Every structure is written in C-alpha cells, then in structure tokens.
C-alpha cells in the first residue's frame, strides 16, 4: 500500500485572526519539490482574504480527477497500440447543497479532447471503452461520492 502526502503551510502574520480578516493564502509542498500556492476560493471567501491566483481546494480536486483519468486513459491507449498525440481536458466541478446547510462538489464533468495518430486508431466505441476503463481504474474517482461524467471528443491527426 502506498502513502501519498503533502505539507500544507499557513502563517497568520500580523492579522488579528478572530475578526476573520486574515489571509487564506497558504502553500502546498510536495515530496518531489513542487511548491504550489493555495488559497480558499474567492467564491467562498471574498477578496482580499482569498488569493485568486492560487489553487483552491475545489480546483485541486477537479485537477486530481482529470489528471488521474488522463493518466489511465493514456496507459490504456498505449497498451492497445494506439498513439495519442495530445490530450486536453477542460474539466469542471459544480458546487451545490447536499442538505442540512452543507455544500459539496456535486458533479464533475471531464471534457477530454484526444488526438490520435498512427496506423491503428480507435473508433467511437473504442474511445468510449478506454474512457470507461480509465474511469473505473482512477483512484481519485473511486474515492469520491460525487458523480464524474466524461463528455469528451477525439479525432485523428
């Protein structure tokens, strides 16, 4: 069993804190050396207490699902002998109420656009099958309660 982690760091600075007038900007540090600026979403906490240039947890969740799905898709396509030239996904998540005053990511839509080249290319059923298996194998999607839909397209180079 693998363990995955990161270090999340935040410092108050000279803000009063209990008046809620403090910065939500923080840093994510990953074991490979990547450092990512994080913040609450400006949809959740107004400016200037959120940093819109930083990654918020909701965006990170969408990116994780999209990245996991893509990595499985690419692996499966290669195993089938298909050559993928590019893969781009404009993924989105919707936040909504789930009852008792709580909110959650209620829907994630992946919109991958895949370009294949080479002599062996899948048809629509083949692409659908690759996405289906990629979704089933994606660790992140398997960890969520929300629905994850794939509404992608593909073409030959």
Automatic annotation (TrEMBL):
Transmembrane segments: none annotated. InterPro entries: KH_dom-like_a/b (IPR015946), OsmC/Ohr_fam (IPR003718), OsmC/Ohrsf (IPR036102), OsmC_Ohr_Peroxiredoxin (IPR052707). Pfam families: OsmC. This is OsmC family protein. It comes from Ramlibacter cellulosilyticus. The lineage of its organism: Bacteria, Pseudomonadati, Pseudomonadota, Betaproteobacteria, Burkholderiales.
